[in-house]
Design a protein that fits this description.
This protein is an alpha+beta fold. The chain is 38% helix and 21% strand. It binds ligand MTE and molybdenum atom. It holds the Pfam family Oxidored_molyb.
Length: 526
């Protein structure tokens, strides 16, 4: 019976060597992904199959898992996701390779299914066109034949008549030939991926567009105002450099928007729909404001917060061009990649420095922080206000829509809670007895920090010395000189706002509307 025979043969084959076809599958898949990188890079598109699948995954993971990822991995959540996808892809590639060795038809079918899934993910991304399918298509056109060819070398179909002795004679040279073929393919994949990265780095001219903006816009030098930075060793600087500014968003690969292609549509419940180009916007006049931005996912004592000099146009001025209807109460902003935020209309028009920002610390916005234009609204968490790559403002009513994070269980409105953080000493530090500078920051954007107090081991509260601030919209540094006696101690901090709210000791987790509680650290005084 032929089926028994071939079964026995493939059984002997798999006992001898299941790994060559598995390796063939991994290498073929790798080459396919490299080809996708090259084509996406050449086309200047952000959506490679891997990116699209990753972003669909991000958009469809349940809220709790996302919260867990941000809490556990913080700003490294994307790296962890990509690493996880790498492992899953390697396993899938290996399985497809093994399957292909058993049955060419089934193996190629499985590979095709994988491609179709990737294609569907690309298609499901907002703002994708047929052109975004080309990287996936090219990946398939290269990976499928290479898969069949490599698996053929890894597990040569036994000649129908050949029995034991012939099979025993074949392996050595064919194994060498296979390893050479696999090695060359893997090398091509690595070189290809590198080339793709290089092409991608040109980013469809977005970096060039950013350089042009840097040259043409007269952005300010972001000199730190006098007295704001207490310069306590090891404390965070008052001004957060762009490269150290936390990054949180749902985009696995930054949306690529050139300033010259950007436009902002203001519509919905307005008298006149308005569409602005980048030049229209900056032509309205840029204002420079120090504003502190923080994430609702920031834990007590966390670092998902930063302070920068933002250059931009007041959102109120742009809304005024469109003239919102009196019964509207919200603005739904949308980014180029489809993410949305819902911001109270009154917050955007009450005279505070809510900006459509184009500059950050004297440079055009970095791609990761929303180039070419983003929103920044002092007093609100980023998820309800700080839309990056913003392309649309829809004047509407909260009753009529839900924004990205609201549909995932976070609060509809996200005013910043008053908070304070101890930066030095670091938690579990050992310090020498004597005078120890306890220092950090406190923030309650747009309300302002009036006082910061520190106590140790539930003792009396001591007033910290406050640094200067240019407005109520930034964080405020503080320092308290502690006469530290030897032993284990627990300093903790609380802040009071200018409108008299004392920071609550009540612990709340970040979800659904921001963490609360006093930052407390453990210090050993030697
Ligand atoms: N387009 C877009 N804008 C976005 C987000 C996003 O996922 N997509 N995340 C928001 C959140 S939750 C925060 S805290 C801030 C973070 O801005 P940053 O990355 O510049 O620090 O961006 C906001 N704007
Ligand atoms: Mo956030």
């Amino acid at each position: 019976m032929t089926s028994t025979e071939s079964g026995a043969e493939s059984g002997a084959g798999s006992a001898r060597s299941w790994w060559p076809p598995a390796l063939a599958g991994v290498v073929a898949l790798g080459l396919g992904l490299a080809v996708a990188e090259i084509v996406a890079g050449a086309l200047g598109r952000a959506e490679t199959p891997v990116v699209a699948v990753g972003e669909e995954f991000i958009d469809h993971t349940p809220g709790w898992l996302k919260d867990f990822a941000v809490e556990t991995f913080g700003v490294h959540d994307k790296t962890v996701l990509l690493a996880g996808m790498g492992v899953v892809l390697a396993v899938l590639g290996a399985l497809i390779g093994v399957l292909t060795a058993r049955s060419r038809g089934l193996g190629l079918l499985a590979a095709t299914v994988l491609l179709v899934v990737a294609g569907l993910a690309v298609n499901a991304r907002p703002d994708t066109t047929m052109a975004d399918l080309l990287p996936t298509l090219a990946a398939g056109l290269v990976a499928l034949p290479v898969l069949a060819w490599l698996v053929g070398k890894a597990a040569p179909a036994p000649p129908a008549a050949a029995a034991g002795p012939a099979a025993a004679a074949v392996p050595a040279p064919s194994r060498r030939a296979f390893l050479t073929a696999a090695g060359v393919t893997a090398g091509l994949a690595v070189v290809g991926a590198g080339l793709g990265q290089l092409l991608g780095a040109r980013r469809a001219g977005v970096e060039t567009s950013r350089d042009d903006i840097a040259a043409s816009l007269d952005l300010p030098r972001a000199d730190v105002p006098p007295g704001v930075d207490l310069v306590v060793p090891d404390a965070d600087p008052w001004r957060t450099p762009n490269q150290h500014f936390y990054r949180i968003d749902t985009a696995l690969s930054e949306p690529l928007v050139r300033a010259e292609d950007w436009s902002l549509r203001v519509h919905g419940m307005v008298e006149t729909e308005v569409e602005l180009s980048y030049d229209d916007l900056v032509g309205m006049g840029l204002e420079d404001r120090w504003l502190t931005l923080n994430c609702v996912s920031n834990e007590v004592g966390g670092h998902l917060i930063g302070n920068a000099l933002w250059s931009g146009v007041p959102i109120a001025d742009v809304l005024a061009l469109a003239v919102p209807h009196a019964d509207a109460d919200a603005v739904r902003s949308r980014s180029q990649d489809g993410w949305t935020a819902g911001t109270p209309l009154d917050v955007l028009t009450d005279g505070r420095d809510a900006l459509l920002a184009v500059g950050m610390n004297g440079d055009p916005l970095p791609l990761a922080h929303g180039f070419p234009v983003r929103m920044i609204v002092p007093g609100l968490y980023g998820y309800v206000s700080a839309t990056k790559w913003v392309v649309e403002l829809e004047v509407t009513r909260f009753a009529d829509f839900e924004a990205y994070w609201t549909t995932r269980g976070w609060a509809e409105k996200g005013p910043v809670k008053v908070a304070s953080r101890i930066d030095v000493p670091s938690s579990r530090a050992h310090v020498a007895a004597g005078t120890v500078a306890v220092a950090g920051v406190a923030w309650a954007q747009h309300r302002g920090i009036a006082a910061v107090q520190v106590r140790v081991d539930d003792g009396d509260w001591n007033d910290a010395r406050l640094a200067a601030v240019p407005s109520t919209d930034t964080w405020r540094q503080w320092v308290w000189d502690w006469d530290a006696p030897p032993g284990d101690h627990r300093p903790q901090v609380r802040a009071t706002t200018m409108d008299g709210e004392v920071q609550t000791s009540e612990h709340a987790p970040p979800a659904p509307d921001g963490a609360s509680g006093w930052h407390t650290i453990d210090v050993t005084v030697d």
